[in-house]
Design goal:
The protein has a 5-stranded parallel sheet, with helices on both faces. A 4-stranded antiparallel sheet has the order 6-7-8-9, with no helix packed on it. A 3-stranded antiparallel sheet has the order 10-12-11. It is an alpha/beta fold and 234 residues long. The chain has 8 helices and 12 strands. Bound molecules: calcium ion.
Length: 234
Amino acid sequence: MMHKIALLLVEDEPHIAQGLVFNLEEEGYLVTHVESGEHALELLAINSYALIILDLALPGIDGLEVCDRLREEENQIPILMLTARGTEQDRIIGLSKGADDYLAKPFNLKEFLLRVAGLLRRANWQTDQPKNKLYTFGNNQIDLETDQAITAKGTIQLTELEMKMLRLFFAQEGKVLSRGELLKQVWGMSPETETRTLDNFIVRVRKYFEIDPTKPRFFLTIRGRGYRFIQSPE
Ligand code: CA
């Protein structure tokens, strides 16, 4: 199943946002649009996106502040900064705050889409470089290249979907992933889809990796919110 790349657009001007959402969706991206920095940070704390398109001038917390906070938290998500101001000084400030690229309004739509694609390509290239192809938690070791897991219960060949979900958990270690987000990212389903698939997956993953699957220590259920993976439980 083809799964869409999730982007977060932070833009307070409705007509600009509308145009960008329309064109990004035409390109096949899954776009979440919010109008404030506060809302963006809330979503970023619980969801994962491949890229943020971030307007600089926002009411409340502005784009620079959002950038600053994310980088302070060591969130390395690629950021494309948009601004009405096109001075060199603004550009330098944006980049020094950790934006990966910068586009001054008004911009050419084609250039905008190319920059988005370019940032995603670079981010992919970076994450494709295996820093460490083994991921370890508890007595479990997962080979991220062969998708094989060595567990206390033996060696398991993981499926593509299982790996997709595990990678998501590993990348967001310690954070709560909502059911909607997991369904969207792993299966490409809309968050509204009612499904038992996810629950069955979690049951299976616990069976593989938890010493006592009925008392999970690594793959935790957070009631009413989703699931959290902990690499080193106390
Ligand atoms: Ca604005």
